[in-house]
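Subject: complex prediction, re-run

Hi both,

The earlier run crashed halfway through, so I resubmitted it with identical inputs.
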Amino acid sequence: MSKLDYDRRRFLKVSSASVFGAGLVLAMTWEDLPAKANDNSKISSRFQPNAWLKIDDDGSVTVYVVESEMGQGSTSLMPMILAEELEVAWQDIKVERAPLKPVYGYQYTGGSASIRKGWATLRSAGAVAREMLISAAVQQWAVNHQDCYADNSYIIHQTSGKKLSFAELISTAASLPLPEHVRLKIPEEYKILGRAVPRLDIPQKVDGSAQFGIDVQLPDTLYATTVHCPVIGGKPKKIDDTQAKAISGVRHIFPIDNAVAVVAEDTWTSMKAAGSLDIEWDNGSNVTLNSKKIRQQLQQSANKAGKTNYQHGDISKILNSSNKVSASYDLPFQAHAPMEPMNCTAVVDDERCELWVPTQSPSAAKNTAIKYGFSKVSYYMDKVSSKLGFAERDRVDVHTTLLGGGFGRRLKQDYVAEAVQIAKEVGGPVKLVWSRQEDMRNDFYHPQTFHLMEGSIDADGKPLTWWHRLSGVGKVGAAKFPYEIPNVKIDIEKVDIPVPTGPWRSVSHHYYAFAQETFFDELAYLGKQDPLTLRLDLIKDSRLRGVLELAADKAGWSKALPEGHFLGVAAHFSFGTYVAEVVEIALDENAQIQVLRVVVAIDCGIVINPDVVRAQMEGSVVFGLSAALKGGISIEEGRIQQSNYHDFSILQMHEMPVVETYIMESNESPQGIGEPGVPPLAPALANAVFAATRVPIRSLPLSIQLKA
Amino acid sequence: MTKGRRMARIKLNVNGENHVVEVLNDTPLLWVLRDKLNLTGTKYACGIGACGACAVLADGEPIRSCVIPAIELENKAIITIEGLSADSSHALQQAWIELQVPQCGYCQSGQILTAAALLEKNPNPSDADINTAMSQVLCRCGTYQRVRAGIHLAAKRMKEEG
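This time it finished cleanly. Structure:
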């Protein structure tokens, strides 16, 4: 957004659908007021001008947050945006999870989209409330509106200095009509945004009181776990539960659609009984599936050159070039492995279903509950009636708890489907908890991909052609090509292989940026170019250049390094945000990589909370390092080989580099921070290793390649 | 043969309180804490003692409660995150808040209790000491840098306060 646009938008007609993308939501919001603000007869002890906040007579402001809290700070960042416009003192803010009401739209937390989605809405919601409180004071004092302003939970009359607290004004405010226009603040006026405001969810996370899904304890709960066929897509055929049923405290053992459920009086008993089941499986058709074969399939399809995603110029020139590189890049499947295993507590009867679940999408959880909790007839009747525009039957309640990690895994609701089926069978509340092994082996994996890269350089050593052929399992994608190279072609081939795949922190950007940014260094090396200088020469986007320059400067790119130390750089644009990373490594004589330092430069537009940006960059670096250095997921005879953190290892404390984060100042609209730090990490690391050894790194995990 | 099939009455001292629970005789302490005593701050994550999310203190030593049967801990004083302090006043908890260490928070009870045991023995740990003590406590969100800084800060504060 240009500065001019920004000023033009400072005055916002909230009811207009044309002002912001979110305008429609707003228009709906004002009509769906739980407390009718324009109802003159109503004297209320609370003021709720829209669905995003309420102010109670103790002056507390409750902000309703739609986004799931999985450590990325949504329950603090979203209220900060609203609080800024409302001019409320931060200590008066309380947070509640928004209920599943149509006004909030389809609730999901993913794609690093929370702030981008909520920015306009939450600012407007806060500004509307502020203007109404000012109008209430104006009415009480009989003064001019322009002489009053809001600050620190008070409305203040500028000339006389008299003031009234929000709490004193709510009943008057609740009787006023909604304002037609509200003014939104400009960045120079921000008091809360841009500050490292302590997150509201931290205190409960240091004393054990934080309630994750797995911590939900209802009276008379039974504890369930499920066992799935080791072969992908298999189903239970015959269950011998003699041993399991002999264990005291085991209540029920029965098959559900793709698993066997064990229900007991506590979690340990359920897991122990699950381990003593003798199950004959119908392995289905995937017993011949293995990683090597998948790689061959991907390689074949990459060679076919599938759908062209992007092209300009003519890459056939590469054929006659003598100055070219061809390389293939490989990345394995990855599991999400959030520390909290999949779980869901459910109560189901004929009429209603209630869920307590750590999910990234309560809306999807609700749809899942309707599908599995009620009869097919009533499921389709619901669908038809909603298509005809009838009000939805209110029969599923979803209580979204804190999430012990999400990373995309909890956008899927397979564990909800299981909990609902089990609760329906058992009656009464059931808490389903997967063992780590079931969690690891029944994931929706980050897809395995294969990349064929070909490029050539001109007489000056500058890249002339670039051909990237990507093939991957399931839904794979590319990103915007950032370099000014005369001849470019990017092809994508999706291969249908029956391994469940799904979004994983940074999704396609992870493998795409790895192949692109690592191959870039190979071409730079061929042309005897400095990889940073060449990037800066060929990138036209000034914001991407900006983060590269900042990261390189802070990392000391042009300065002398200690003996045995090497730097690698990569940059990537994703989720609206620009990130460059410089990785400093030391390589010992046994080819052991020590990752010493990662310098991150990020331009995510307006910064809501710089400390949360830093935390997300630190986390992204660790997530990226785990994928780059550790094992990934492999498949033999249709079975996922890894089962727990000992064989799907993640980065540990002693391997943690120093992470330095530098944030570009910007007045552009705020963008994603949860994922964009991941994609540059692996290529920057691979480029550092390439700089050290001059052996190109073409597969992940790169430690395996180094040992080979 | 009967191990794990039969119930046992187990006496435990947790956070200074005595409890008697009736569970399968091989039930790990973790599930007694969580399912019977409603002390859910101690977390299940791996079940094989590989990640440290379930760490608690037994007579001051960090143990993996997911793999140690409760029956073997009858004579130990168990401290869980709920019992580390009454009001989050432990120097580590304060440092964790000050440095905003947790992200999702799921592993943090294990991080804090393992760090508490370290500081008890070694009030002035080096980075290498922290690596040794903390490397088996996993965090998928990647809070290690802040965990390290939090331990150093807590150590400093504890020294200042004597």
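Chain A touches chain B through 66 residues (CB under 8 Å).

- K.
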